[in-house]
Specification:
Elements: H1 3-10, E1 45-49, E2 53-59, E3 67-75, H2 83-103, H3 105-109, E4 113-119, E5 122-130, H4 134-146, H5 152-167, H6 174-186, H7 193-200, H8 205-215, E6 220-227, H9 231-249, E7 265-266, E8 271-278, E9 287-297, H10 300-324, E10 330-338, E11 341-350, H11 355-374, H12 378-392, H13 399-412, H14 419-427, H15 432-443, E12 451-458, H16 460-471, H17 485-501, H18 528-535, E13 544-546, H19 550-555, E14 558-559, E15 576-577, H20 591-600
Parallel strand pairs: 2-6, 8-12, 8-13
Antiparallel strand pairs: 1-2, 3-5, 3-6, 4-5, 7-14, 9-11, 9-12, 10-11, 14-15
Helix pairs in contact: 2-5, 2-7, 4-9, 5-7, 10-11, 10-12, 10-14, 10-15, 11-15, 11-17, 12-14
Length: 609
């Protein structure tokens, strides 16, 4: 080393402002594992249950890692009272994350992570990582909440970004929009993104500041703490969280009746409910369809039957609808779970075929499947059971996956933490005849027990073709959007064969329903063109009900009891009916469909929400 360099280093001048970074308070120094009581792969148990908190805990060391996950869910009755409330909570969450970007950065460098999100009942604070320093990170997050102040400059930035986020929902893929519209229809309490767009500009730093005391005036804390953390440490976490919000916001317990409302609409039985809309983006060429056959609320045996039916049919669904018919690149059959209510769902998107045509092909495939299941060889049935059992018993590969599985049970109120094992035990008892009867009950078109919803989103290709046909006097609303005559002829023939195979029924429902020939809408449909288009989306023996107004439709339907009944020990009622105008007049086997139709027909125009 040159001596000049050594002299310069020895006699160097101090450079003020240049220093080593401060010690990272989130770097763990203790990586030891806690003592695990009970079986190594046990289930969470109630740790805290009181008037303001219900928290599950499990010292789980199956992954032999010094890490843990903490989920604290603050459920408040004011969080989702109105679109303004929902947007305000969303802004609060985004501002908290914005404020934390800098101060929580050292935690991310030390291997810790966190998230703050809002949902239908409030907002959630969660963190994961090395268990020794996890309470330190959680304290930082809760301190930010406790001392929250709206900063006008950051508020303006976050508000603008959120407004763009709402506006961009119109540019989702049509199949995503179809699924979103279905959620709006099936979730009993749900606001629409259009409503969010209308109110976000009305919220100011002052109104958000005034909203916070109302938001946190009453709350219920629900949580899960799992991993390398002892019961005493977990109890301290819960006590600290409650102490912070009570000291800062004076939070009290919720009143009976203010618990989270996660009920799901019970679709009318014996009739197909159909929602038809143009896509939100007029430049998107694709049409899409989402179809669900409701199975019902959480039940281990029915869950197992639905899962087995999907297992035995999904490959053939892809083969027929995607490979052979080439309806579109997005073709999927799966088991749906909407807030604890199970279903068997299909989603398809195409730029070649109309939404009505795709919905019809789904129904034709379903009827073929019902017949095939009734004569399924025992070897194929046994192979399907074995394959599904293996899939269900596949163990989670990381702690976060396990925590997410358990938290899903807690949030929906089912709390069956060993669900996979329990459903496998039920699967082993199912016989081919049981599955055939279940398929006929849930998906058989001749059954009054079937509850079906079809959401049809019409893309620009389909709508442009309709306009061209109207200009030249041609009436055609289904089939391939392009001019491929061979495919159109094939689709028409398939529909005719299906209609001949199943004789039409004479059942009808007051409201927007078909006459006995299965393809003519009732006189109060409000739009003959829409009724005619909808008739091409169903098979000849289906009664159908056009959904014009989502809220009106929901007011005329029953709702499933909330899963679980998490707070208190209220008994679930066998029937909980929400009725709209005229719904009380519905009688007989089709009364629920008549009630839905009566409320749905209040306005007689297509819904704007």
């Amino acid at each position: 080393i040159p001596r000049a360099w050594l002299n310069a280093w020895s006699n160097g001048k101090t450079i003020f402002g240049l220093h080593l970074p401060a010690a990272n308070p989130f770097v763990p120094s203790d990586l030891s594992l806690k003592q695990c009581l009970g079986p190594k792969e046990g289930l969470p148990e109630i740790l805290v249950e009181g008037p303001m908190a219900r928290v599950w805990h499990r010292t789980d060391l199956r992954f032999e890692s010094p890490k843990a996950t903490i989920v604290l869910d603050f459920q408040t009755p004011s969080a989702y009272q109105s679109p303004e409330s929902a947007v305000s909570v969303r802004l609060l969450v985004k501002l908290l994350v914005d404020y934390l970007n800098e101060v929580a950065y050292p935690a991310e460098l030390a291997g810790l992570g966190y998230s703050i999100t809002n949902h239908l009942a409030g907002f959630q604070v969660s963190c994961q990582g090395y268990s020794q320093k996890l309470p330190v990170l959680l304290d930082l997050l809760l301190d930010q909440l406790a001392a929250f102040v709206v900063k006008p400059d950051r508020f303006a930035v976050v508000q603008e970004a959120l407004a763009r986020e709402y506006a961009n929902t119109a540019y989702q893929q049509p199949y995503q929009w179809a699924m979103y519209r279905a959620e709006l229809l099936l979730n009993y309490k749900r606001w629409h993104v259009d409503q969010y767009q209308k109110v976000i500009g009305q919220i100011t730093p002052a109104t958000l500041t005034a909203f916070l005391p109302r938001l946190l005036a009453r709350a219920q804390l629900e949580g899960l703490i799992v991993g390398n953390i002892s019961p005493d440490e977990a109890s301290a976490v819960v006590e600290g969280a409650l102490a912070r919000i009570q000291a800062s916001w004076g939070t009290a317990q919720i009143w009976p009746g203010e618990e989270k409302d996660l009920r799901v609409v019970k679709l009318p039985a014996g009739v197909t409910s159909v929602l038809v809309e143009p896509g939100p983006n007029p430049k998107n060429e694709n049409s899409a369809v989402w179809v669900v056959y409701q199975v019902g609320p959480d039940d281990l045996r029915r869950n197992a039957l639905a899962g087995l039916l999907v297992q035995l049919a999904k490959r053939e669904a892809f083969n027929q609808l995607r490979t052979q018919q080439q309806l579109g690149y997005i073709v999927h059959m799966y088991g749906s779970n909407d807030l604890g209510v199970q279903g068997i769902a299909f989603v398809i998107q195409s730029d070649k075929y109309s939404a009505a045509h795709m919905a019809l092909q789904v129904e034709l495939f379903v009827q073929q499947t019902v017949k095939r299941i009734a004569t399924l060889p025992e070897e194929e049935f046994a192979a399907g059971v074995l394959e599904l059992c293996k899939a269900k018993l596949e163990k989670p590969k990381r702690l976060s996956e396990l925590a997410a599985r358990w938290w899903g049970e807690i949030y929906t109120g089912t709390c069956i933490f060993d669900r996979q094992v329990a459903e496998v035990e039920v699967l082993k008892t199912i016989k081919p005849a049981d599955l055939a009867a279940f398929a006929e009950e849930v998906m058989g078109s001749s059954k009054d027990s079937r509850r079906k919803l079809a959401v049809l989103i019409r893309g620009s290709n389909e709508l442009e073709q309709k306009q061209q046909q109207q200009q030249i006097g041609v009436s055609s609303n289904s089939g391939e959007v392009s001019s491929n005559a061979d495919r159109t002829t094939e689709a028409t023939a398939a529909s005719a064969r299906a209609n001949e195979a199943v004789a039409p029924t004479s059942s009808s429902v007051d409201g927007t329903c078909p006459t006995p020939d299965g393809h003519a809408a009732a006189s109060n449909s409000g739009s003959g063109d829409l009724a005619g288009y909808t008739a091409t989306a169903i098979s000849a023996n289906e009664a159908f009900l056009i959904v014009y107004d989502l809220n009106g439709f929901k007011r005329g339907c029953e709702v499933y009891p909330a899963a679980g009944q998490q707070h208190g020990h209220r008994q679930q009622q066998q029937q909980h009916i929400q009725q709209g105008k005229g719904a009380e007049s519905g009688q007989g086997a089709t009364s629920d469909a008549a009630a839905a139709a009566a409320a749905n027909a209040e306005d007689g125009v297509a819904a704007k929400l």
